[in-house]
User: What shape does this take?
Amino acid sequence: MKTSLRNDICKKQLLNLFISTFLFLVLINPPIFALNTLLPPGSNFDLDPWILQTISIENKFEEKLPPDLRTGYTSNLFYTNTTDGSMVFKVPSNGGTTSGSGYPRVEFRQVKNGAYWSLADTSEHYLTAQCKVITVATAKPQTIFGQIHGNENNSELLKLRWTGYLAKKCYIEARFQTNDSIGSEYGVKLATGLSLGDLISYTITMKNGTITATANGISASQTYSAKYYGTTDTYYFKAGNYFQYSSTDSTIFGLNQFYKLSLIKEDPTSIITPKLYETQIYYNHLTKCIATCYELLSPSKISLIIYDLNGKIVRKLIQNRVENSGIIHHSFEISDLKNGIYWVRYNSDHLTRNIKLIIEN
Assistant: This one.
């Protein structure tokens, strides 16, 4: 009875505090969703749809399959940034290359979630990502961080390419092939005035032969017809770091960092779009409770689990519970947890987020 009453008081106190501070926190200081700096990329991101094309310790091209990525594969070229948790793709200019390419790469190739679609596919294939280009080769300051590729020769229908290294002088192009028998490449500038380290938000979609690329809110499109493309070819996404410079100097490298990467095969207008405040955590040291708030635009299976800094589960608050759409509030008593830093992992059918929780009493 006492526990129940305490929980009711806890809920009311936390809800009032949450509502009173919520708009201020979001509008004045929007939260940045934290990636866990202690986990490998395969734990922070859903990498099951991807094969990693990378470079071995013998400096030769190799591939890592989804089971490798799920079980925590990392290397000196593919790892988690210990400062912000981003997924790092580092490419040495002397790295081994794939057949038919003169440039090294560390990047993903899509193998699931709708991979290998036809030109005439009427469903929309959708890649969305956030990344930063950190380092390029000054001799040729270019890297490709997103693509639509085909299985046949001369079928790189789209490349998103960064060019430049001088502050405020860099730009992003959508590099399309022309819709003709020649299939030559041309570029459309999407974002200009950039500097290395600027955040890039981009999407690539393809539906019924039309490709649309968007970077930082600017879009360009190209439609391909079966007269020149797609009679037998199938297509897939690539993302990461296709470094556009090759040399014998191992000290020259390119480095890209990814903060978001997801694939969807559907109309993107129906995607459950994460809100800035979708998973808020508030801790009240007086009642030893935490309150959570998130928004669901459709019913979804939810898990909410607390981990310590070693990645050990310390509390399963919610596990695989189906919840209806709407703004959802929960509160939980955690008086038994010691002071320290924890991670609260929120997982739904459409989104995974790791949020730092600091307990100080």
